[in-house]
């Protein structure tokens, strides 16, 4: 059992014999301890659960997995080696671990709730002005925006400040989860704004530049895994940055072969038509006729 505890959670590698808390919570094991010398100290686990459960939303997954493995090991060991202990008694006493595990699983959603309350609304509000940018641009507009960013630089700076403020309060793995949530929400908000705009070729070129800014920032703060969260947005930007309907079809078919991630879906034909309809210079009849 010591070996199992150490394997599940290295910080619990040093395991001692049970104490009054264990006797109270697991009486069937305590009852036979003087005969079997079966020493398990689950009380070592209780302070950890209390710490994580009361003061933070951090690392629930590790706790939940640890408790589940411990529960399975206890059931297996006791049923195989100590047949005189009824399985019903074991199950009853393990309800405590099940309750702890259930609590840990519920609390792991705390990171998502934190994102919704502290990040999501601000990301959405920051993206609202994006749809007001005129996408019927000239080459002079594109050149001007290269020197005077109309939106994206400030938007990403706002998000970065938000992340920096919250990073000290999160464990690294949960901070990484927040980063991926952020990437997905940025993509969702920008896609929603794009759907309300009408583009010409130069407007699409500016959009491509902004998409590259997003990718560069997210890769810098969250690594390559963030790219997957904006992959759908990338498909939309690529479709808008074509010269002809025929080129759009080629881009779309190529995306089908290049999209290998199980979580990244290629745009459907109706979605392709909808995206291409955002190009004001593409004939509606030609868009409807594509197959």
Automatic annotation (TrEMBL):
It is found in: Golgi apparatus membrane. Its main location: Golgi. The keyword Glycoprotein does not apply. GO terms for biological process: Golgi organization; protein transport; retrograde vesicle-mediated transport, Golgi to endoplasmic reticulum. Residues 61-274 form the Conserved oligomeric Golgi complex subunit 4 C-terminal domain. GO terms for cellular component: Golgi membrane; Golgi transport complex. It is a peripheral membrane protein. The keyword Protein transport applies. Required for normal Golgi function. This is Conserved oligomeric Golgi complex subunit 4.
